[in-house]
Amino acid sequence: MSIKVASLTKIYDTQKAVDDISFELKKGEIVGFLGPNGAGKSTTMKMITGYLPPTSGTAIVCGFDVQEKPMEVRSRVGYLPEANPLYFEMYVREYLEFTAGIHKMGKNTKPRIEEMITMTGLSKEAHKKIGALSKGYKQRVGLAQAMIHDPEVLILDEPTSGLDPNQIIEIRDLIKSIGASKTVLLSTHIMQEVQAMCSRVVIINNGKIVADDLIENLQHANTKQDLLIVAFEVVVNSDLFSELKNLKNFESIGNNKWNLYTDNADALRREVMQWSLNHDINISSLQAQTETLEDVFRTLTKK
Q1: Fold designation for 224-291
Q2: Taking 70 as the threshold, does the pLDDT of residue 60 lie above it?
Q3: Is the per-residue pLDDT at 56 higher than 90?
Q4: pLDDT at 32
Q5: Across all residues in the chain, what is the average pLDDT?
Q6: CATH 3.30.70.100 domain residues, the chain
Q7: CATH homologous superfamily for 3-220?
Q8: Which regions of the chain carry the CATH code 3.40.50.300?
Q9: What is the pLDDT at residue 221?
Q10: Which residues pair with 8 in a beta bridge?
Q11: C-beta separation of 76 from 59 below 8 A
Q12: In whole angstroms, what is the distance from residue 25 CA to residue 280 CA?
């Protein structure tokens, strides 16, 4: 496992910011780490990267215990904190050279800097001081420094914060391409980004893990009933719906469209198609709808 967290806990005075959590990430995974503000996401990320000691429990990165081998872990981790601390008086290339020096990259420094500048879309801004950059470009500098030493693991806390829609797509594609050969744990409040980049999510609430699964599994598990939305070309007598054995409930939503609720969407879909043929009723559209990731998130964290 690239990341293995076991019974990790962080206590501030009487508050448990992180409460006995455990999860694992394999190489090649891009996992979304989700939770409301104050849930413990950033605290967990800081413990995994070695910036914050846990009260109890362990975090192991690439086979090294964060507390016992902190330098081994830091050499293998790229970290973009939520606040993205930067030296505003430094020029972009100067800052990346400084970061490369910390990682003792030697002769690989200059070509790697240029590669990062190109990869993160900083070419037009590389001659400027960091303080003169927009928030979006400062975020790109933060990403470049996190990746400068080609780490095995990336910990990204709100990586698309401050980016415009075009920049978000570019960074999303970058993270997806990187994630094919690395391990990426990313936190964001933008559910569309999670669905675009991640197949799996870990959701934390009040310091505890409340979900850890594939997105599609969570969407299905938290849906009490499946929903089919069907539109007919003619007015339909709802009394005929009594013939549909897999139909649990229904409601009209206007314009000859109906919400059909069921415990088995596939079975009801086949049934509706045969039913429409039997009654010579044309269907203009038929689609299944499940809970969105945002719906799942709100259900699991509303308390």
Answers
A1: Alpha-Beta Plaits (3.30.70)
A2: yes
A3: yes
A4: 96
A5: 91
A6: 224-291
A7: P-loop containing nucleotide triphosphate hydrolases (3.40.50.300)
A8: 3-220
A9: 67
A10: 21
A11: no
A12: 53
